[in-house]
Amino acid sequence: MQAGPGIYPRSHPSPRAGRVKLVATKAPTRFMKQLPLIDMHALRTFTIAAQERNMSTAAARLGISQSAVSQTIRNLENQLGAILVNRTERPLSLTPAGHVLADRGSAVLDSVLDLANAVAERAKGVNPSIRLGLIDSFAATCGGRLARALAARTTRLAVRTGLTPALDQQLLDRELDLVISSEFMDDRSALASYPLFTEPFVAIIPSAFHRGQSTVAELRQLTAGLPLIRYNAESHVGTQVEEVLRRHQIRSAALLEFETADTLTAMVSEGLGWALTTPLCILQAEHLCRGVSFSYVEELQASRTLYLLARADQHEGFVADIWRLCRELVVSELLPRLEKLDPRLASGITLPDATAPATGNGVSAHRPAT
Predict the structure, then answer these.
(1) What pTM was computed for the model?
(2) What are phi and psi of 356, to 5 degrees?
(3) For residue range 26-50, what is the model confidence (pLDDT) as tens digits?
(4) Which helix (H) or strand (E) holds 277?
(5) How many CB atoms lie within 10 A of CB 209?
(6) What value, to the nearest 5°, has the Cα angle with vertex 206 and ends 200 and 209?
(7) How far is residue 57's CA from residue 62's CA, in Å, rounded to a whole number?
(8) Sequence-ordered alpha helix ranges (H) in 2-81
(9) Would you say residue 363 has pLDDT above 50?
(10) Using an 8 Å Cβ cutoff, are 125 and 153 in contact?
(11) Could you give all domains of the chain from N- to C-terminal order, each with its CATH number?
């Protein structure tokens, strides 16, 4: 701006001034209007509509009318001062603000549920609602007894079964509360790992090929004439077996891979090959063990540990109770059945100290496939 006569910008000295004088100005202070707290019912309604991408389907899930869903979301928009959904698009889509609320809102709802469960746990005579994940081998051998015991201790019990990686991810995504898994989550500070028991890897061999193999060299020799049957590489036990094979240089072409212990054991029973598995997996496929012999190769120095996994801040007392209950099931149910099948299967099982479940560094020595 051109300065008029006798008017000088503050960044320049006047003719009569010997030096520049800097003038500090204070920026105006603005206060953001405090928004009211979001109603949890409205947040749940919105997150379900966001998941379904359809208000009619969301209404059916919630057991209310479509107009109630629409009005609840509109009230939420008015409260937040932001449009959350694009109502003119089919299927329903979210605005950028809607995506933020949907992503963070689900975590908020889970936290509120965790809080409600924690309060209920402390209340006399009330137990929490639990979503439990079990790996297939534990579900098939101990899952029924565990579910029966938990049903009497919880307000609601939902059980999922599957492979370790999928269950672990569902726990991290807060879709499950507890998981019995073969993976020690030592790199996840938000999770606690409670060791249940450790079991060795055992060679299962068609009886026609069994010669009492007890050394790694004998397993290598066996592989020269009989292929190795593997667990699917996507399973955690499959990854563990591959690590053992690499360490001991037991090489066999990957001709046969199976996802479950039942199928793998059935293939061994048919004489198609031999495999490395564990006592729990053998017990899972007990009905298919006809024509199968066991070889215990201590030289492998290979084992896996099963853990009870939980979020570190959730159901503390209840998790400890579940850990003790699982341990009792291992002692009273699992070990006697293994003893009956083959005493050496039972003798290979080791349990942690019964006084209290260890977490964090307390279980760092329990490494699978070592």
Answers:
(1) 0.65
(2) -165, 150
(3) 444 444 556 667 888 899 999 999 9
(4) strand 275-277
(5) 15
(6) 105
(7) 9
(8) 40-52, 55-62, 66-80
(9) no
(10) no
(11) 40-119 (1.10.10.10), 127-196+305-341 (3.40.190.10), 202-301 (3.40.190.10)
